[in-house]
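Data availability (excerpt). The following record was deposited with the supplementary files.
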Amino acid sequence: MVRPAGHSTAPRRVLLVEDDPGDVFLVRELLAEVDSPIVLTVAESVAAAVSSGLLATADCVLLDLRLPDQVGRDPLDALRALRDQAPPYCAICVLTGLDDEHLGAAAMAEGAQDYLVKGTVDGELLTRSVRYAVERRRAERNAVRLREVQLERAESARVERGLLPRLLLDGSFVAGQPFYRAGRQSLLGGDFYDAIRCPDGSVHAIVGDVCGHGPDEAALGALLRVSWRALVLSGVGEPEVLGALQQVLNSERHAPALFTTLCTVALFKEDDRAGGRVLARVRVAGHPPPIMLRPELGELPHLLGPPLGVLPDPEWPPVTTALPAGWALMLYSDGLIEGYNGPDRADRLWNTGLLELLAKHGDTQLASLPTRLAEQAVDLNGGPLGDDVAILLLSEPARADPGQADPGRPGPVPR
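Predicted structure:
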């Protein structure tokens, strides 16, 4: 629970936890003498403060350490009990007859914002102490939230390095361009991509999506991507890679129902001649299939297999297609097509709508195509997409757009 920040002179809701009627009367008189903006409520014990609900609405608590329910106990037990039950924005000031310097220091160490001794404070000092205590507590909470945001960003950056790698395509017959845009639900999700050149000269690419959103799914996506790269580079046969990835998923997922969809493309040249044909072998595991962008628009031939983590002994049948000269392919995650297809919100974009968008952008350079597609999908959806979008473009190097300083890395990830 977070209390909105207000002006420092605004009235403060102060809960006085005090069992002595005389001391309650004295506190009220002190505040009345200086026309204090404090709105005072009273509870006779820690238990009454919690059960009455007064603690939940207080900006500050003035706490006496000598209470009926604390007799024979450590004087700071009341402070600890209130600290554990109070909302995070609530400040606690000790107001007690125990004039003990060491006890005061211990109370501050236990979370009190101030230590006041009865008989030594007037209305002005009491009002000022409450105001400063509330502001100090607010500053502490802001510092904690800032630190939490910094840690979340650092964690996201570490996971991002696993999900958004530099493509290893140097010296290959393929140019690659990745794109990633986080959805509105989290800074980073479970979408991942990669493309690498193997020692035998073939090129392998993957785009995948771990179901769900959040850091656990993102970490699992990064693990699957790194595992895929290791399997392919180590020479594991292309037909066995997805089965090995499912074993990794099954052993590392934090929930038994968690699954992953993905699409892989293996590109081979029939021979080493410059004009040799390129063959594309596609495997689809519950994922949108690759799209041929050039020279003609359409989905690559494919057979649909189950997502990883669903069946105990699945099969992902391959389909091999010879690519024509000037080819360009697009692999993508379903976040691109799950948004609405227009302001009436009657239907989703889906594959059909995506092909229609691509037909309108037939003359768009590959370098700017992913950004334009994502922005148009957001416009059709009427707002930010609910899922992450990963896109991987593959093409002949001679047909790659000029001026790409680093085609192996995506641009800045929009937040």
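Summary of structural features: Residues 123-163 form the longest helix (41 residues).
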